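We modelled the chain as a single entity of 116 amino acids. Its sequence is:
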Amino acid sequence: QVQLVESGGGLVQAGGSLRLSCAASGRTFSSYAMGWFRQAPGKEREFVAAINWSGGNTYYADSVKGRFTISRDNAQNTGYLQMNSLKPEDTAVYYCYTVRGTYVYWGQGTQVTVSS
């Protein structure tokens, strides 16, 4: 069983920055990839970024490439999403996830609102 808790969301002006955190329970966090999705009102959940178990490989959606940075601290069982140059279209609930076999664990989400 894995529990994920996101934090760090909030209201920010366009061009600003936020850093999201995803705290994971359990001792196996460092063995698995994790990442972030987001869901805007009336839209489907979409992929944002992912990172492999060691942090050596990262993947980004084209819409956030160059602005967002995913990272992890396995000693702290925590993943991060640094979001810079935020745009109003980045407004969404952001969810972190991790995968165990065929099962996907999700956090409860954290709201990010970017005002123009």
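As a brief sanity check on the tokenised model: DSSP finds no helices and eleven strands in the chain. Residues 48 and 64 are 7 Å apart (CA to CA).
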